[in-house]
Every structure is written in structure tokens, then in C-alpha cells.
Amino acid sequence: MCLCSGSRSSKTFKPKKNIPEGSHQYELLKHAEATLGSGNLRQAVMLPEGEDLNEWIAVNTVDFFNQINMLYGTITEFCTETSCSVMSAGPRYEYHWADGTNIKKPIKCSAPKYIDYLMTWVQDQLDDETLFPSKIGVPFPKNFMSVAKTILKRLFRVYAHIYHQHFDSVMQLQEEAHLNTSFKHFIFFVQEFNLIDRRELAPLQDLIEKLGSKDR
């Protein structure tokens, strides 16, 4: 587990994943940041004209990993083996970890352990050049979309855990606006490209509807 030194807001749970400066993906990220600044999130998540869908999803997946990494990094001291002995999102939803390679059979574990497994697994996928090619002209693999969907489905669970189990701490730290904006961006993005099954979103369905209704 890496908690980088510095102020609370600069803490990250895992090292930040950087997109190489000067690359096309870096330009796409800059475009995403610029459109986000306009305040219209529905528009900001749309595929820019003439761009490759896989590349757009890849750039945004890296960005969401970095955002969640930072958000969870601010509350790790409150998410402990004692306070969160299971990985849950409220009383009705509990998550067990399996990655299909190192851990094939789902195991019940504490939230900090689960999130450590999850973020390490995501990081390994993002660092795999055969899955997330950073060089221009290198094609995305045929299974890219299914891997991206699994990553986003699992990252959603970190948001769900934070909202259900740690929202009081988020409010104490005055990070709720940051959390809400990040989650809204995430949800609008996965809705735009139909990347997470509606059943998986059930733990935060009320919040999702509320965020969506404000934009109608």
C-alpha cells in the first residue's frame, strides 16, 4: 500500500498512473479536461468527433483510476480492518474478491484488503501494453472492451463503499463536492457507452437518479 507524503489532498492510495506527455492519449486527456471545465458533463463524456472509441475509453479509465485512487487515499485512515471488516456498500451489498488468476475462488475480506487487491489489479491492467497500448498505431486487443468494463465495474465498488460507509468522513474533510463531481462524471461516462450493467449500479441507484435528474 502506498500513501505518498504531502498534504491530505495529494495523497494517493497507489502511485498515480501517468499518460505520456506528447502522446495522442495525452492530447485526448487534455481535451477531456477542457470540456469538463465547461460544466456540461453529459457533453464532456461524449466521444470527440473522429476519435477512436477504445482510445477514449482507455484515457478516461486511467483518469477514473487516478481520481478514485486520490479520493480513497484521503479516507484510508477511516477504512480499517476493524471499521470495515467486510467490503460492503450498505447492509444489502457485500463484495468478495477474485481476479481469475491469482485468486480464482471469491474470498471474503475486509474493505481495505479488497480495495488494495482491486487497485493493484487495475494498475496491472493499465500497465499492460498489450491491453492498454500507449504507442500510436498499436491496436487495442479484441478483448479490450470487456477488460475495460470489468475495471469500471470494480472501480464503481470503491465509490459505493465510500458513499455508504465513509460519507461522514468525506464531509468532515470537506471533500463531498469533489467526490460528487467525480462520481457524476464517472456515471455519465459509463451510461454514455453502456459500460456497467444496471444491476451492478444498484447500491447507488437513488444517488444516480438524483444526479441524472438535475441534468434533465
UniProtKB/TrEMBL annotation:
By its UniProt entry, which InterPro entries does this protein fall under? MOB_kinase_act_fam, MOB_kinase_act_sf
Show the SUPFAM superfamilies listed in the entry. Mob1/phocein
Question: Is the keyword Transmembrane assigned to this protein?
Answer: no
Q: Where does Zn(2+) bind?
A: C79, C84, H161, H166
The answer to whether UniProt assigns keyword Nuclease to this entry is no
UniProt keyword terms in alphabetical order:
Metal-binding, Zinc
Task: State the SMART domains in the record.
Answer: Mob1_phocein
Write down what this protein is called. MOB kinase activator 1A
